[in-house]
Design brief:
The protein is mainly β. It contains no helices and eleven strands. It has one domain: Immunoglobulins (Immunoglobulin-like, Sandwich), CATH 2.60.40.10. It holds the Pfam family V-set.
Length: 132
């Protein structure tokens, strides 16, 4: 099964720094599947010197650090989450997607200033899974 790719954006004042696209808009994430979220800068490539970070935030909870320095996980984070740099973008891959992975995901990059981008992954318990 091919992995879906979601490129995230942060609407508002930082939009000029971060470009984003949802491709394809109707793609769904099925439990057990794989999804890749990508974060790109409109002002240039993301490299390891940007120290990409990824966070997960569930409703009513503080953001939780998933990945830092491109691909390093805190010891409490499952290996289902992995970070990389691909085609000048920072990427977060979630394998074996589970209902508990439904959350907002944010990337942060150091590019002279800290820039954030976010997107939501939906994994409904019933019915057709979705990305939004």
């Amino acid at each position: 099964m091919a992995a879906s790719q979601l490129l995230c954006s942060f609407p508002g004042p930082l939009q000029k720094f971060i470009s984003a696209f949802l491709a394809p808009p109707s793609e769904s994430v099925t439990p057990g599947g794989t999804v890749t979220l990508s974060c790109s800068l409109s002002t240039g490539a993301i490299t390891s010197s940007n120290y990409p970070f990824w966070f997960q935030q569930k409703p009513g909870s503080a953001p939780q650090l998933l990945i830092y320095s491109t691909n390093t996980r805190p010891s409490s984070i499952t290996t289902r989450f992995s970070g990389s740099i691909s085609s000048d973008d920072a990427a977060l891959t979630i394998t074996g997607v589970q209902a508990e992975d439904e959350a907002d995901y944010y990337c942060a990059n150091l590019n002279g200033k800290v820039l954030f981008s976010g997107c939501r992954v939906g994994v409904p318990l019933r019915g057709r899974p979705r990305l939004s």
